[in-house]
């Protein structure tokens, strides 16, 4: 996620510099052919280009709006995961307590709380890794036992399996008298349901891209417009066509580029949802709720980007 208020010129040149150079060269070519070699048929009616520009602008606006809606839905899903995770940790520390008629030695209550909360942290990070299609899962080792980590390596959907394990463990504790019926059914299991729901939203966004025809035809129409633009301006503006066409063409192509990069919020790009930072912030909150003293620090912004 880009968090700096301004985008450096070097970043813009790195991404769109090739297009700007093309527009300069193309504009020069049109001006030279029309004004020096007087090739009149290169001119194009400006009125038709105006109509095309309006149509392209409307299409760009629609496409970019839908792309941002996808991004915001993805961010909202992780916001829901953040809120539900904090609530889940409060439920764990408040609802999961040893039975009052415990005949054996005092059980390790803190250990059970840590087991449940750490497994949930593993779920969050597994979901993040799945959405970004990472190939290494070593980041989950601090949150799981060796046995669980080995069993998890064989799973197709690791986040789902972790949530399923969590559900079974809560059921075991409920049957053992560690959780009251109301707290189990209407508290903890509702949290598990919320985790599955947020995961489903993220997976739907990841596996269902914005219809390709929007991206394909929007880009094609933008480039048709920017290629015709100098042909329409040159007969009225002369050499002034060059800077005007470069500026307008860059505006349209950059706007199209913004939409294409925004529509995939889980693709490991600077514009993505900052899932790693969100997971770290949740970890900090939950470990504080456990009463731990050794807490990791929030991620820092690097080059204006928070991952």
UniProtKB/TrEMBL annotation:
Native source species: Nitrosomonas aestuarii
Superkingdom to which the source organism belongs: Bacteria
Membrane topology: Multi-pass membrane protein
Swiss-Prot/TrEMBL keywords: Cell membrane, Ion transport, Membrane, Transmembrane, Transmembrane helix, Transport
Subcellular locations according to the entry: Cell membrane
Protein name as annotated: Putative membrane protein
InterPro entries noted in UniProt: YneE/VCCN1/2-like
GO cellular component: plasma membrane
An MF annotation (GO) of this entry: chloride channel activity
Family indicated by similarity: Belongs to the anion channel-forming bestrophin (TC 1.A.46) family.
Membrane-traversing stretches: 20-37, 43-62, 214-233
């Amino acid at each position: 996620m880009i968090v700096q208020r301004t985008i450096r010129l070097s970043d813009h040149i790195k991404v769109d510099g090739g297009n700007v150079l093309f527009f300069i060269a193309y504009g020069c070519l049109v001006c030279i052919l029309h004004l020096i070699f007087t090739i009149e048929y290169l001119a194009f009616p400006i009125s038709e280009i105006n109509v095309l520009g309006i149509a392209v602008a409307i299409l760009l606006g629609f496409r970019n709006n839908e792309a941002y809606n996808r991004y915001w839905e993805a961010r909202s899903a992780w916001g829901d995961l953040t809120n539900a995770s904090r609530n889940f940790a409060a439920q764990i520390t408040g609802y999961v307590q040893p039975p009052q008629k415990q005949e054996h030695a005092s059980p390790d209550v803190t250990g059970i709380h840590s087991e449940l909360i750490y497994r949930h942290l593993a779920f969050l990070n597994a979901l993040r890794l799945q959405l970004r299609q990472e190939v290494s899962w070593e980041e989950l080792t601090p949150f799981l036992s060796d046995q669980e980590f080995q069993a998890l390596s064989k799973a197709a959907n690791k986040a789902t399996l972790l949530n399923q394990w969590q559900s079974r463990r809560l059921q075991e504790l409920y049957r053992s008298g560690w959780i009251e019926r109301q707290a189990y059914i209407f508290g903890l299991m509702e949290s598990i349901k919320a985790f599955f729901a947020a995961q489903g939203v993220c997976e739907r966004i990841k596996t269902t891209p914005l219809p390709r025809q929007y991206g394909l035809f929007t880009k094609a129409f933008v480039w048709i417009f920017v290629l015709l633009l100098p042909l329409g301006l040159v007969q009225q503006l002369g050499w002034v066509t060059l800077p005007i066409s470069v500026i307008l063409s860059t505006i349209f192509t950059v706007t199209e580029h913004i939409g294409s990069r925004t529509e995939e919020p889980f693709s490991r790009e600077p514009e993505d949802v900052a899932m790693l930072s969100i997971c770290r912030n949740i970890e900090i909150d939950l470990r504080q709720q456990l009463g731990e003293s050794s807490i990791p620090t929030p991620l820092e912004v690097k080059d204006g980007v928070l991952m």
